[in-house]
Amino acid sequence: MKGEEKGEGPEDQDTIGIYVGKRNPEGDRHGEGWAVLPNGDYYAGCYCRGQRNGKGLYVFKNGARYEGEWRRAMKYGVGRMVYPDGSRYEGDWRHDVKQGFGAYYYPNGDIYEGAWFKGKRHGLGTYFFSEYQIKFMGTWVEGAIQGPGQIIYPRYRYHGSWLKGKPKGPGCFVFDTNCMQHGFYLLIKDPATEEFGEGEEEKEEKELKDERLEEEEEREFDETLGKIATWRARNVTAYMSEFLPPEPVPLPVHDSVPSLTDESCIITDEIQFDQPSIVPEDEGGDDNDSWLLHRQEFLEEAVQKDDA
């Protein structure tokens, strides 16, 4: 059939693997179905003209799994991704990457909730540090804390600005006793990077290292490199809101990639499917065995419907 010759994505360059489901008159996968791909991945959900489109469940061979919306074989819309290390992301996707608003839950208990752009934390967000029981609220730029924000501790909080993940510039600590400590953060050279008692070999290595650093600095100057943030207090006053630094604001983003909305395929978003049962490896059999078992059950149900 025509659909068996075309495939549906990069993973199907040699063969499309096993597919059970609906097709359109041209032979393309179209509607509800499921497939075992040649690389061992599994997909169950909706198709539109040979591509994943609508709601679907994708299970990767390494144990990761995505359940949510698709557009033209890419994660696009709202979905939930669970990674092999146990972390998970729940939120918006665009063009196969995290983009929009979403929450990421880390294995160590940390949680980030906020804006994403092209797969990185970007914009307003909140990060909870589980080990220290503190929370950061502010702005992120390309995955790093940058701009105005605040860190909330159990009995006080700090308001200020950050540069590439490090506090920098004027700020203030606000305590539960309704007082404020004003001051500023300086970026100074980290004493741990200083070298003492250099020999000839160490000097030559240092010169080569300095040359490489100069070349890197010419490409991109980073004033936070090799620096640590040090607090310098100036004075203490009663709490007054007008003394607080500026609050963080949303960052403008511009996505030049055209929308993947295809009105002729929106109807497939409404198709519902039953999530297959998966036999864990520690209970006997591997993932591929469970897919074949599900395929056999699918075929038996189809035969029963035909006989009826």
Automatic annotation (TrEMBL):
One Pfam family of this chain: MORN
Keyword set includes Repeat: yes
GO biological process, one term: spermatid development
Keywords carried by this UniProt record: Repeat
InterPro entries: MORN (IPR003409)
Taxonomy, superkingdom: Eukaryota
GO CC annotations on file: motile cilium; nucleus
Organism name: Heliothis virescens
UniProt-annotated stretches for the region Disordered: 1-24, 195-221
Feature: compositional bias, Acidic residues: 195-204
Keyword Repeat: yes
SUPFAM superfamilies assigned to the protein according to its UniProt record, in alphabetical order: Histone H3 K4-specific methyltransferase SET7/9 N-terminal domain (SSF82185)
Protein's UniProt name: Radial spoke head 1 homolog
